[in-house]
Design goal:
The chain has helices at about 65-75, 75-80, 90-95, 105-130, 140-150, 165-170, 175-185, 195-215, 235-240, 290-295, 300-305, 310-340; strands at about 10-15, 25-35, 40-45, 50, 60, 100-105, 160-165, 215-220, 225, 245-250, 255, 260, 270, 275-280. By secondary structure, it is of the alpha+beta class. Helix 4 runs antiparallel to helix 5. It is globular. About 30% of the residues are buried.
């Protein structure tokens, strides 16, 4: 195996009801766990996408598949009617994830934020059940507390995220299907856009790229590729996660990392290499949080975010940053007039 892992690397892929991270649901989830010794284990779940009740405790209704999503993933409402909701498998899912780094294709921008959004909706639903009156049984409340305890062990931002798409795009912009064909003598992979097929293809693609881009010199695929000795891909999760951030300094000629760390899972708020936190969307995109707070001291923009379909994680993180700015502003005033 071309990888040298310190921890298991869990590749995953999601097929969903649509493309809206904040409101759409997971219909199919595949995990492919690669252990440091090269062993692999695979698991595929299908779920009945669930619209969690927000103001009562009636049974959640099935969230319908968007027809455009069904055309791509070939999953239809009728395929999911007899499946159980994601909440029924949460213990098993979290157990698979514990102690792992994560891998996928476009997973940092889509699959990981959607998984996080599902977890946040689950937490909100369980908290609602725990605080309910007699309309929810004590047994149901105990189950809700159990789910909350399971989810409390999960920090999706703590793991290294190896997004193979970002590696491919840095080397040569391509889709998963075309990149796979390039590195596998023009061959396609079967059942593209099923969660299991996409997950396996992502892992196989990374192995092939690791074989080629960790060896300096000329490589002939369907085109000539020259690999510089100081631009090697790396073999562990940290090196692979950092590879898309590499750039060559124009003055020194050295390869350096241009890091941009996601503060929230969805990447709407980022910490850049200067250490400052920036808004990464909307009309104030590119403003630091401090600049944003000064512009929006009455929290109109923040309230707009809270009222829209952003993920709960983004809303919580942005609210906390506003609170921190307000606290710092009050302290500065106190220090100024206290010393006058």
């Amino acid at each position: 195996m071309n990888l040298e892992l310190k921890r298991p690397l869990l590749f995953f892929d999601i097929e969903s009801t649509g493309l809206d991270i904040a409101t759409d649901c997971i219909a199919e989830l595949c995990f492919l766990k690669v252990f440091p010794d090269g062993r692999t284990a695979e698991k595929v779940w299908r779920f009945r996408p669930w619209d969690y009740p927000k103001d009562n405790f009636s049974k959640g209704r099935q969230h319908r598949m968007d027809p455009s999503a069904s055309k791509v993933n070939h999953i239809y409402d009728s395929d999911l009617e007899k499946e159980k909701p994601l909440i029924c498998y949460i213990g098993e899912i979290v157990e698979w994830m514990e102690g792992c780094d994560l891998g996928g294709y476009n997973s940092e921008r889509y699959d990981l934020p959607l998984l996080s959004s599902e977890f946040e909706r689950l937490k909100a639903y369980c908290r609602m059940r725990c605080s309910a009156g007699e309309e929810v049984s004590e047994e149901a409340k105990a189950e809700a507390r159990k789910v909350l305890d399971i989810l409390s062990r999960t920090d999706l931002q703590a793991a290294k995220m190896v997004d193979v798409q970002k590696i491919v795009y840095k080397l040569m912009p391509r889709t998963l299907k075309s990149a796979y064909a390039l590195f596998h003598e023009g061959r396609d992979f079967e059942d593209a856009h099923s969660a299991a097929a996409d997950t396996r293809a992502t892992y196989e693609l990374l192995l092939k790229m690791s074989e080629i881009f960790n060896t300096p010199g000329e490589h002939i695929l369907q085109q000539h590729i020259h690999v510089e000795a100081d631009d090697l891909l790396g073999k562990d999760a940290e090196a692979l996660a950092d590879f898309p951030l590499k750039k060559r300094d124009p003055d020194s000629g050295k390869v350096v990392l241009d890091k941009e760390e996601f503060v929230d899972i969805a990447g709407k708020i980022v910490r850049r290499s200067d250490g400052k936190i920036y808004l990464n969307f909307g009309k104030y995109r590119g403003k630091t949080i401090e600049e944003l707070y000064k512009i929006d001291s009455r929290r109109g923009f923040l309230q707009w975010v809270l009222d829209r379909d952003f993920t709960q994680d983004t809303k919580d993180k942005l609210s906390a940053l506003y609170d921190e700015c307000e606290k710092n502003a009050l302290k500065a005033l106190k220090d100024k007039f206290g010393n006058a």
